[in-house]
Amino acid sequence: MTNSNGRSTQSGKSNTALNEYDSRVFNLEAVKVFYSGFLALQDVYMEVPDKQIIAFIGPSGCGKSTLLRCFNRMNDLIPGAKVEGKLNYRGRNIHDSNINSVKLRRQVGMVFQRPNPFPKSIYENITFGPRSNGYKGNIDELVETSLKRAAIWNEVKDKLKSKGTALSGGQQQRLCIARAIAMKPDVLLMDEPCSALDPISTRQVEELCLEIKEQYTIIMVTHNMQQASRVADHTAFFNTETDKNGKRYGRLVEFSPTKQIFEAPKTPEAAEYISGRFG
User: Fold this and answer.
1) Is the separation of the CB atoms in 172 and 95 below 8 Å?
2) pLDDT at position 47, please?
3) DSSP label at residue 229
4) For residues 1 and 49, what is the distance between their CA atoms, to the nearest angstrom?
5) Is residue 117 within 8 Å of residue 132, measured between CB atoms?
6) I want to staple 252 with a disulfide (CB 3.0 to 4.6 A). Which of 6, 145, 167, 227 is the partner?
7) Could you tell me if 220 and 56 are in contact, meaning their C-beta atoms sit under 8 angstroms apart?
8) pLDDT of residue 74
9) Where does residue 66 fall: left (phi above 0), alpha (psi -120 to 50 degrees), or beta otherwise?
């Protein structure tokens, strides 16, 4: 795992292929992110374990979402963004020239802050991605399985031809999770998936995450510390610093088992944030 500064305590390289098994889902070494030449996130060292829920917490602007977008190279789509350092997925550096970013995003799916179902039927929301990527299996079975895994099948099974946008906010978010699951990913990235939801829908999404973590590694950005304490196995705390020119950048302060970081954090900064002294 990592020490209190988030620095990896293990070394060694793996020749594992992109789609093969490695117990370290992600291994980050000295990862930095720049936007238009300005440092946004300082050196990050982290090892993400398999089939667990990882929560990223910290004040606004500390780099949580910036790092999340690194895991499937979504930062490639932001003009002026640059990522340095090594970020291995299942033993392979995702920035190697022979890594296909589109294929990577199939394996490392993403659920965004606000539900964004396609303006299509519920059925088409699930089938669009697989069909676009040449899926040859039983498409009806895939739809049912994906919606069941997202705990929404019983609510929508009789209206699969209805628009996904007609669902409630919480149902839309679970539909988006089902849409991601339909691509048969290895990892699910969630960028504040409950911030736009009511408490009942939030609980449903949290319960869903706990149910499906046996099949997927889940990395979740959240501003809700109580949510992190409820669902996460490990929690990473980020904070901001200011450089000599007055520019703020984010850095990883501590990455620990969730119980430890909330009850006995290793760093004073994490203790102050969790106790509510700032943030």
Assistant:
1) no
2) 96
3) H
4) 8
5) no
6) 6
7) yes
8) 94
9) alpha
Which residues, 6 or more positions from 92, have their beta carbon under 8 angstroms from its beta carbon? 14, 16, 17, 18, 99
Can you state the angle between helices 139-149 and 169-181, rounded to 10 degrees? 130
DSSP string for 185-199: -SEEEEESTTTTS-H
The 8 Å CB, 24+ separation contacts for 101-106 are 101/72, 101/73, 101/76, 103/18, 104/18, 104/72, 104/73, 105/72, 105/73, 105/74, 106/133, 106/183, 106/184, 106/185
Whose tokens are 């033993």? That residue is 91
Rounded to an integer, what distance in angstroms lies between the CA atom of residue 89 and that of residue 24?
8
The pTM of the full predicted model, rounded to 2 decimals, is: 0.87
Print burial letters for 141-171: b (CB count within 10 Å at least 16), e (below 16).
ebbebbbebbbbbebbeeebeeebbebeebb
3-state per-residue secondary structure call for 237-255: EEEEEECCCCCEEEEEEEE
56-70, pLDDT tens digit by residue? Answer: 999 999 999 999 999
Q: Going from the N-terminus, what domains does the chain have, and what CATH number goes with each?
A: 24-108+186-274 (3.40.50.300)
DSSP H helices, 71-195, are 101-107, 122-132, 139-149, 153-156, 169-181
Burial 66-86 (b: 16+ CB within 10 A, else e): bbbbbbbbbbeeeeebebebe
